[in-house]
Design goal:
Order of helices and strands of chain B: HHHHHHHHEEEEEHEEHEH
Number of domains of chain B: 3
CATH class of the largest domain in chain B: Mainly Beta
Largest sheet of chain B: 8 strands, mixed
Distance between the termini of chain A: 155 Å
Largest interface: A-B, 51 and 56 residues
Order of helices and strands of chain A: HHHHHHH
CATH architecture of the largest domain in chain B: Beta Barrel
Structural class of chain B: alpha+beta
Number of helices of chain B: 11
Number of strands of chain B: 8
CATH topology of one domain in chain A: Butyryl-CoA Dehydrogenase, subunit A, domain 3
Oligomer: heterodimer
CATH architecture of one domain in chain A: Up-down Bundle
Strand content of chain B: 5-15%
Shape of chain A: rod-shaped
Shape of chain B: rod-shaped
Chain lengths: ~220, ~375
C-alpha cells in the first residue's frame, strides 16, 4: 500500500513537473510572439518632421506665389505620405510597413528642397526683370529730360513741355513706388508697375522726338 | 540526449500551436475589424487639390479652408480610432467628415471657377471700358489746353490701367480690381472735367453751324471757293460750288479754346471773315499767308463791351490774323493764326483769292457727337 502511494505520488510529481514545463513552453512561445509583435516597424516620425520643415522652408521662400503648381505637388506628396502612415497605423502591428511612406517622404523632402530652390530662382528672375525694367525706365526718363532741353520752346512748345514735365513727374513718382516694392520684395507687383511707367516714358520720348524731328525738318 | 530532443520537439509544437492559434485569432479580428475610409479621404484630398488648382485659396478661401479643416478633423478621428483595438474601431465619424470635406472641396472648386470666370468677364469689360475712355480722351481731349490736374488724372489713369492690364494678363485678378477702379475713376473725372471745360465752348454750336451753312450756301450760289475752319477738329475744309473739295490739318493758337478777345491772348478768333491779302514768302515769315479781316464788326463790339465791363484787359483787340505756312509741328503754337504745312498752304494759296470767305467755327460737331453718343 505504501509502495502504491509512493508510486502515485511519483506519478503526480512527474505530471506536475510536465505541466510546469508545458506552461513554461507556452509562455516562452508567447514571449517569442510578443517579441515579434513589439519588434515590428515604427512610423517614420523623423522623416515627417523633416518633410514638413522642408515644406515650411519652401513656403517661406514664397513658393506658393512664384511656383504655385510645384508647391502644390509637394503638399500633395506629403498628404499621400501621411495618409499612408495612418493607413499602416490602422493595421495590426505585425503587418505594418512604413517603407512606402518613408519613400514618399524622402521624395517629398527632395521635392520640397527643389521647389524652394526653384522659388528662389523664379523670384530672382522676377526681381531681375523688375530691376532691369526699372533701370531701363530710369534711362528713358533721363533721355526724356535730355530731349526736353532740345525740344521747341517759346510760344511753340511751352504748354506742351509743361504737360510733358507734369507727366514725367508722375512717371518718376511711379518709379519711386517701384523701388519701394522691390525693397519690400513684392517683385510681381513691381514688374506690373514699372512696365506701366516704362510704357509712359517711352511714349513721352516718342512725342518729344517727333516734335524735335518736325522742328529740324522746318529748318 | 533523447530527453533533450523530446523537449525541443515539444517546444516547437507548442510554438506552432500557439502561433496558429494567435494567427487564427488575429485573422478573425482582422475579419471583424472595420476598414478606415481611405478611398473617401483620398477623394476629398484629390478634390481639395483640384480646388487649389483653380486657386480656391484666392477665390473661395472660406470654403476651401472649411474643406481642409474637415479633412484635418477626419485625420484626427482616424488617429483616435487607431488608438483603440482594431475590432472596437468605428470609422463612421471619419467617413462623415471625409464626405463633408469632399462636398466642401467640390463647392470650393465651383465657387472659385465661377468667381474667376465672373471676375475675368467683369474685368475684361472694365479694362475695355477704361481703354476706350483713355483712347477717347487721347483722341478728343488730350490736345485741349486743359487744367493741369485734368491731364495729371489722365496720365495717372493710363499708368494704373497699364498696371492693371499686366496683372490681368498674368491672371492675378485680385490685384487688378483696385488699380482699375482708380483708373476708371480718374479717367471719368478727366472726361468730366474736359466736358465741363468745353460746355461753355459748345454753347455757340448753333451759331457756328448756321455760319457754316451760310458759307457753303454762298459757295454754292457764287460757284466760288469758301473756307471753313473747324477749330475743334483742327481742320480746314475748302468748298467750291457748295461741294467739299479739299481738307487740311491745321494748327491753332496756344489758347485756341474760346474766341479771340484781345491782343496777345493767343486765341484763334471765331467768326465770318474773308481774305484781304495774299502774302507770298517775301511778305511773310511763315512761307505764305492769307490775311483775313479780323477784327470784324462783331469782334470790335465784343471787345468794347468787354473792356467796359472790365472782363477784358485794355490791350487792344489785336490784328494780323492769317492762314499761313510753317505748320506741321504737332502742337498748337501760333499767336492766334491758323497754320498749315507748306505743302498744304501751297495748295490752298493757289485755290483761293482775295475776297474768299473764311468762316472760323469752334466746332461743326456737338460734344455728344464727338463723344460718340
Amino acid at each position: 500500500m505504501k509502495l502504491f502511494v509512493e508510486l502515485i505520488n511519483n506519478l503526480l510529481q512527474t505530471k506536475i513537473t510536465k505541466m510546469k514545463k508545458n506552461l513554461m513552453l507556452t509562455l516562452a512561445a508567447f514571449a517569442v510572439l510578443t517579441l515579434m509583435f513589439t519588434s515590428c516597424a515604427k512610423p517614420p516620425e523623423m522623416e515627417v518632421t523633416n518633410a514638413k520643415a522642408a515644406i515650411e522652408a519652401a513656403k517661406a521662400a514664397e513658393a506658393e506665389r512664384y511656383v504655385a503648381p510645384q508647391f502644390k505637388a509637394v503638399t500633395d506628396s506629403l498628404n499621400v505620405a501621411l495618409t499612408e502612415i495612418e493607413n499602416q497605423n490602422s493595421k495590426f502591428a505585425l503587418f505594418r510597413s512604413y517603407k512606402k511612406a518613408t519613400a514618399t517622404l524622402a521624395n517629398t523632402l527632395t521635392l520640397a528642397n527643389t521647389v524652394k530652390e526653384n522659388a528662389a530662382i523664379r523670384k530672382e528672375e522676377v526681381k531681375n526683370q523688375a530691376q532691369q525694367t526699372l533701370a531701363e525706365t530710369t534711362t528713358l526718363v533721363s533721355e526724356v529730360k535730355e530731349l526736353i532741353t532740345k525740344a521747341p520752346k517759346g510760344k511753340e512748345g511751352k504748354e506742351a513741355l509743361e504737360a510733358i514735365n507734369s507727366d514725367l513727374a508722375l512717371v518718376e513718382a511711379s518709379l519711386a513706388e517701384v523701388s519701394t516694392l522691390i525693397n519690400n520684395g513684392d517683385y510681381l507687383t513691381a514688374v506690373d508697375k514699372v512696365k506701366a511707367a516704362n510704357d509712359k516714358a517711352a511714349s513721352l520720348k516718342a512725342e518729344l522726338e517727333e516734335a524735335i524731328a518736325k522742328k529740324s525738318m522746318r529748318k | 540526449m533523447g530527453k533533450a530532443i523530446k523537449i525541443i520537439k515539444r517546444t516547437f509544437f507548442t510554438i506552432i500551436i500557439v502561433g496558429l492559434l494567435t494567427v487564427t485569432i488575429i485573422g478573425l479580428l482582422i475579419l471583424i475589424s472595420p476598414n478606415p475610409p481611405i478611398e473617401s479621404l483620398n477623394l476629398a484630398q484629390a478634390e481639395i487639390g483640384r480646388a487649389k488648382d483653380v486657386e480656391a485659396q484666392k477665390y473661395a478661401k472660406p470654403t476651401i479652408e472649411a474643406a481642409e479643416d474637415l479633412v484635418a478633423q477626419a485625420q484626427f478621428e482616424w488617429k483616435l480610432q487607431n488608438k483603440s483595438y482594431a475590432f472596437l474601431r468605428d470609422y463612421g465619424k471619419m467617413l462623415q467628415l471625409t464626405k463633408a470635406a469632399l462636398e466642401k472641396a467640390k463647392l470650393a472648386t465651383e465657387k472659385s471657377l465661377e468667381l474667376k470666370s465672373t471676375m475675368h468677364t467683369e474685368l475684361s469689360v472694365k479694362l475695355k471700358d477704361v481703354d476706350e475712355k483713355l483712347k477717347h480722351f487721347d483722341e478728343n481731349y488730350a490736345h485741349l489746353p486743359l487744367k493741369g490736374t485734368t491731364r495729371q488724372n489722365f496720365t495717372t489713369a493710363r499708368l494704373r490701367y497699364v498696371e492693371s492690364k499686366e496683372a490681368f494678363e498674368r491672371g492675378a485678378y485680385k490685384d487688378v480690381g483696385f488699380n482699375l477702379d482708380v483708373a476708371s475713376q480718374l479717367i471719368s473725372k478727366s472726361v468730366k472735367d474736359a466736358h465741363s471745360f468745353l460746355s461753355n465752348y459748345f454753347e455757340n454750336l448753333g451759331k457756328w453751324r448756321r455760319w457754316a451753312d451760310e458759307t457753303v450756301s454762298w459757295s454754292s450760289r457764287s460757284n466760288a471757293p469758301a473756307i471753313i475752319v473747324d477749330k475743334f477738329a483742327h481742320k480746314i475744309y475748302v468748298y467750291h460750288g457748295g461741294k467739299l473739295k479739299k481738307e487740311f490739318f491745321a494748327e491753332l493758337g496756344t489758347n485756341w479754346i474760346g474766341t479771340k478777345q484781345y491782343r496777345g491772348d493767343k486765341a484763334t478768333p471765331e467768326g465770318k471773315y474773308h481774305i484781304t491779302k495774299k502774302k507770298t514768302s517775301r511778305l511773310t515769315k511763315y512761307y505764305k499767308a492769307l490775311l483775313i479781316n479780323y477784327p470784324n464788326d462783331e469782334d470790335k463790339q465784343r471787345y468794347s463791351s468787354g473792356v467796359k465791363s472790365g472782363m477784358i484787359p485794355k490791350r487792344g483787340i489785336g490784328n494780323l490774323i492769317e492762314i499761313h505756312g510753317d505748320g506741321g509741328r504737332g502742337i498748337n503754337w501760333t499767336d492766334g493764326c491758323v497754320a498749315l504745312t507748306n505743302n498744304d498752304i501751297d495748295k490752298l494759296f493757289d485755290y483761293v483769292g482775295v475776297g474768299t470767305p473764311v468762316t472760323i467755327v469752334g466746332s461743326l460737331r456737338s460734344l455728344q457727337e464727338i463723344n460718340g453718343h
